[in-house]
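Sync notes, pocket subgroup
Present: LS, DG
LS reminded everyone that the earlier model was apo-only. Rerun requested with zinc ion included. Inputs:
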Amino acid sequence: MKVCIYSRISENPDGTSTGTARQERDCRELAASMGWEVARVYREDDTSAFGTKPRPVFEAMVSDIKAGSYDGLLVWKLDRLTRKLKDLATVVDAIETGHAFVRTVEGGINTANGGSHLLLTIQAAIANEESRNTSLRIKRKHQELAENGMHSGGGTRPYGFSADWTAVIEEEAAVIRNIAAALLAGESTLGICKRLTTPTVSGKPWHPTVLRKLMTSARLAGCREYKGIVYQSESIPAILDMETVERLRVLFRNPARKTKNAFRNSLLSGFVKCGNCGSTMHMKALPQGKEGFRWACAKPPVGKGCGRTTVVNAPVELVVIEALLHRLDNPALAEAAEGADTSRQSLGAELVAIRERSASLSQDHYVNGLIDRNTFLAAYEPLKARTDHLESLLAESPVAPAVSEYEGKARILWAGKTLSERRALLGLLIERIAILSFGKTGRNFNPERIAITWRF
Ligand SMILES: [Zn+2]
């Protein structure tokens, strides 16, 4: 049997490194013990298995294997070959074409007894990798990759940052923080774009696509994103905290978002519910000659309600606004909000931590081969379930409103807000407005018919 050895210096996660000499020696020992002839040793000087730098030795090895030059390939550990799952697929392709096997000293990979297993494992890992590209994953201190993954320079600078990404432009950072708060408060991207008065970097007006791209960028949390993986950067200052960016990403991934933020033309649309049956009340025109409209519980086929409740909008709106402003003026609100904020932040922090654990677990299983499939699944599935649970909790948990600025001057600030901002503010504090019906409905307005369910 004729085999080749591939070796590459690599930093271990604990900071130690395994030199090529040791890798080569261990591989040779393995070959000797198996009675294999080592036909060639491929030594890579490049220390990066992540980066975009070409690795000529790796390429040469792959094409030699493909050409059928060897019966097998010995590597000290699979991550010496590459940490890029797509490169692993290249290797798999080469060993299949060249009818060779791969054997590692560490990590127990041996395609000679069950090549298809490796293939499946790798394919699963690739699928896994790609499916997670949309989620935020953090790996700390991968300075090397961060350097490779650096922006290529040139082009326009990103909004909020200097051209080299190392300094924050404060006026723009303030706009970013404002947009983040508005998005998390449920304001639509279109509504936000319409009210932004300062232009984008290119000088063009804001567009929802631009806004979305900006607000889901890992850069905002002082990170660099490279091929779907997020790395903490030492040089990029953070404008938002990680938890906020995480939450924004969850928000934009939510398919319900589009309908939820559909254009609304009334302050209370969607909030007004029938106190009798609980269904959302519809807007209905008032009789000819009267201004405004009323809310009506609609029976099928128009709605899903009981059809027994109706109320004129204007006085309801007044009562709700007064109650809202009163709440905003009150210092007790800020305290309640702070408590909610703390719990939401801990949800976010747990989510980030669990994603990291899942990622390192996958790395241990798929790449390093430290744990077998059953052990991996036993550990991974609860993490996955917890991730899904946390994501839904986070998506549903009330956003602690940043409302301290309203204390004592709610009325003045309210007056300066657009409809979309007002709706967002309302949604922060109010979950629903139930319209109760006492006997004969709709005739006389009575403030006691309004029951507001507060979030805060
Ligand atoms: Zn009803």
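DG: The chain has a mean pLDDT of 78.
LS: Residues 272-330+407-454 form one domain.
Action: DG to write up.
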